[in-house]
Amino acid sequence: MSQKEERWERERKEIMGRVEKLEKEGRDREERMMGMKRSVEEVVERGRSSKEENRMGELGEIQKREVWQVGEKVEDLIRCR
């Protein structure tokens, strides 16, 4: 091989090495981003679930009060007779 060909081959290998390194960094970055995206989605879903649970708890409390009030009215009606 001539010196020119050797130099060209060496530069090509260097460039290919850099390309592979950048591709690996890109894959690693993409994997981290996907992991962060999954984490964010999990947090959002937990928040949504918590809101729904709180809402259901509030509805349960309202229903308990309404039942209690109806019970008091029935007791009042019974006492009046």
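[next item in queue]
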Amino acid sequence: MFSRISKAVKAFRERRFVIIFSENEGEADLAIPAQEIVAESILFAARVASGLLCLALPRERLKELKGEFRP
């Protein structure tokens, strides 16, 4: 398990996506640090994965952007 976590941390440091798989839900998510997002990252995620693009933000920043909060 530790090996997988350290590989994920390494991938994040190298500005690469990490696949997070949920056995309970039978689905996977692509994750990348938000500060590393560029147009190519969004295009890759849209092309390879299907579903929602989500971004985790502090509530204060979300209010500044006038975004909608979804838990």
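[queue empty]
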